[in-house]
Amino acid sequence: MSFDPQDMPVFDAIVYWMVVVGVLSIIVMVVSLLSLLVSHRGAGLRIFAEEILRSLTDLFSLSIRRIWALSKLTFIEAYRRKALAVFVVFALLFMFAGWFMGGDTRDMTTDQVKVYVSFVLRTIAWLTLPLIVVLSSFGIPEEIRVRSLHTVVTKPARRLEIVLGRVFGFSMIGTLVLLVMSGVGYIWIVRQVPASARDMLVCRVPVYGKLQFLDRAGNPADKGVNVGDLWEFRSYIEGATKARAIWVFPGIGERTLDSDGNLHLENQFLAFRSYKGNMKQSLLYDYQFRNPDTGATYTTEARPINENRGVTDVISRKLVSRTDGKTYDLIKDFVARDGTLRIEVSCIDREQYLGMARPDLFIRKPDVSFAVGFFKAAAGIEIMMILVVLLAVTGSTFLKGPIATVLTSVLMILGGEKAHAFMDQLMIGRSDKGGFQGGGFFESIYRIITHMNPTTELPDNMGFTIMTGVDGLLTGFLWLCKQVIPRLQYFNMSEYVSNGFDVPFGSTLLPCLLILVGYFLPCVMLGYFALRIRELESK
Amino acid sequence: MSTSGRSTETVIEIRNLSKVYRDFWGRPKVKALNALSLDVRKGEVFGLLGPNGSGKTTTLKLLLGLLFPTEGEITILGRSAADVAKNERIGYLPEESYLYRFLNAYETLDFYGRLFDMPASQRKERSEKLLDLVKLAPQARHRQLKEYSKGMTRRIGVAQALINDPDLVMLDEPTSGLDPLGNRDMKDLILDLKKQGKTVLMCSHLLADVQDVCDRIAILYGGELKVMGRVDELLKAQDETQILSSKLSDEAIRDIEAVLKKHGADMLKVDQPTANLEDLFLKTVQESRDRPGHRTVKDGAAS
After folding, report:
1. Chain A residues with at least one Cβ partner in B under 8 Å
2. CA B252 to chain centre
3. Cβ separation of A153 and B65 shorter than 8 Å?
4. CB pairs below 8 Å between A and B: how many?
5. How does pLDDT run across A3-56, given as a tens digit for each residue?
6. Mutant choice from A59, A147, A151 vs B, greatest count of B C-beta within 10 A
7. Closest approach of chain B CAs to the CA of A368, in angstroms?
8. B99 has a chain A CB within 8 A of its CB
9. Highest CATH level, class, for A235-356
10. Domain extents for chain B?
């Protein structure tokens, strides 16, 4: 596993959201006011105030019955326009997928199970999302084109209710599609995996801790040793020294243990050998449990690592010291008053190194059913689908159907992890090291034309001050644009399930829900104003 | 109410209303309406007349908030045209019945009823009543609107416009696409709405229809108001007198002509009044229903 699930800092995220939405709202308000002042001169301010008042009135006049009516209408429309024909494609795929993916089911490996799970979840996402993008993007523009929306807006339906009705309606049809596909997909996986390999369909529930290091002299360190890897995900501890990797696991108690009272520790450490040594024998490590409140310690026997498959160590609750014969209770003696358990890992082999990152050691709580993890991953697709509906419906309030489709698709592509990382570099102009490379838009053009080295200082005069100032504004604007593009990588939870993990709430489902909520308010308001200021009969 | 019995309460007030359509770059393209001012009073049937492109549908759309005025002010039922709350008391029948083609008649009315926040029992009761009122055949009520003829679509369009029992009904070309029977039903409906005290604003270029039902009319041309007033007053020929009597002999007609000459007047026309084609058509259809197989051919043979 290379991913590193981190719990979302909810408060920080909310503050960040407020900054972005606040800045965007202020920009929109100022631009609106200025354009009204220009077009209506003295009356502009009155019109602006009236519009704000009217919007607030609309907001407080929302009717659940009207929203439900519009949602139901959207659902019936999609249903009767044969949107559910997507099931035919889905059925065809699943009828023949077994031919290409089956292999010898008697000798099924974890990787094969992984492929099945990934295939099902990706197929569901790839069939549902395009369908929903097209339906949502064409909904309102098509209604405006055929003028059926005219009979709605001439009733007491608020524009906000129209947007909400569309969002909920398309979400409902997407949910139906998703529910059916997920159910069929789950059954398909269970049927494809032979009874002998069913134990691979499991969802481990990991408890991840915080990782810190001690260097070879036993002093606290931010990281371990870098053995020359470009990828700095893992760092290494040196064998037979005081170097330690220390995990502190939160929330440990009786429920962390299995029914027999054992603690399951699962690790996947990597080895780095500074000399060849005994290649037939894996490097050795041990665990040391330490209670910081009482100072009690217990060290396990040395164990070999398994770089390919990892190791699951079962630690008995009752621990007997091999040195003094003293007996410890894992929970009572080593769990600190704040509910944390501290485990120190050391490498036994002299001058050899063990590489590790935060998710490389976790406490495995009692497993949950595969169905739980699978449907949680489906819930991730569901939340992403609703977000996509939201974006598409918002786009469709001011764009024609095909353009709204393209806009939503582009947002989805740019929402990927790599696209965001690229934008970070492109827009902010920062290198991985944090320094600026060649400045902003105008500065970089100036440097290219004049063949000026990026590290050379710009001359200090008024012209260059203005240029860098404008660059700063542009960079800020681009930063805002980047914030508007949702980070969709959070929504892909198939990695967890296909690797046999439960989908964690704090680091996965919660961020997804918060992202959805974060987009909901601005998108709905944007859609509302776009419909409000739009002349539906404009020629 | 005024002393003459006509309401003076204004339902629609339009002042200096102008509408300019602009191109993508904001440059003026067409001036569809120019400084229009008019009032529509409570309980009257008001007709907006004019040739194609005269601005009557634009006026209606401005009233409904589907378009925004370039200049001028509109007040409907005491509220601004931009105020959605005004729609609570308005019914609107668009020129074409732009309804949801995948819904059936009941679903359509139920949907629009929900938009007025009406409870289920009221929606159901009102739907049945309106479908009976617009005479939509019971067997057609469960079919999707895409299977409807133009006349049937028009009927369901009228029903949706009346779902909220509105005080003000706006009808855009209400009789377009209707056969003579439907046309008569529509006109009866408009007169019935008037009897109920509703205000009706309709625009049409079918002059006979307007003449039959409207109390007052405004004629627009090129986006400007050209004529406005009561239909009977506008159509009255001020320098002629018409006397209608039972059938007279030729001698009696000559005597009358002599009397008229004695008073310095000319007899311009002596004729037998004829029913209009619509009346004849309706009479024929009614007779065909009452007496199947009966046929009348005026060029000689009758059966």
Report:
1. 54, 58, 61, 63, 65-66, 68-69, 72-73, 76-77, 80-81, 146-148, 150-158, 535-539
2. 42
3. yes
4. 83
5. 667 777 888 888 888 888 888 888 888 888 888 888 777 777 888 888 888 888
6. A151
7. 45
8. yes
9. mainly beta
10. 10-235
φ, ψ (nearest 5 deg) of residue A130 = -60, -40
Contact of B153 with chain A, judged by CB distance below 8 Å, is answered with no
Q: Which tokens hold the place of A253? A: 């108690």
Distance (Å) of CA A18 to CA A388, A491, A511, A514, B162:
21, 22, 16, 13, 45
Q: In angstroms, rounded to a whole number, what is the distance separating the alpha carbons of residues A217 and A157? A: 72
Closest CA to A302 of A313, A310, A292: A313
Look at residues A121, A172, A217 and name the one whose alpha carbon lies nearest to residue A492: A121
pLDDT at position A104 is 59
d(CA B18, CA B35): 5
Task: Give the closest residue to A458 by CA, choosing from A472, A436, A439, A430.
Answer: A439
Q: Which two tokens stand for residue A171?
A: 């979400």
Contacts of residue A219, Cβ cutoff 8 Å, sequence gap at least 6: none
Cα A135–A139–A144 angle (5° rounding)?
155
* Contact residues, chain A, for B92 at CB < 8 Å: 151, 154
Residues 6 or more apart whose Cβ sits within 8 Å of residue B196:
none
- CATH architecture of residue range(s) B10-235: 3-Layer(aba) Sandwich (3.40)
Q: ipTM strictly over 0.90?
A: no
At residue A105 the predicted structure's pLDDT band, cuts being 50, 70 and 90, is low
Q: What is the pTM of this model?
A: 0.81
Checking if the pLDDT of A531 tops 80, the result is yes
pLDDT tier at A170, thresholds 50, 70, 90: very high
Nearest CB to B102; choose among A80, A158, A538: A80
Go through A216-248 and write b for each residue having 16 or more CB atoms within 10 A of its CB, e for each that does not: beeeebeebbeeeeeeeebbbbbbebebbbbbb
Is A437 strand, coil or helix? coil
User: Cβ contact (<8 Å) for A151 and B160?
Assistant: yes
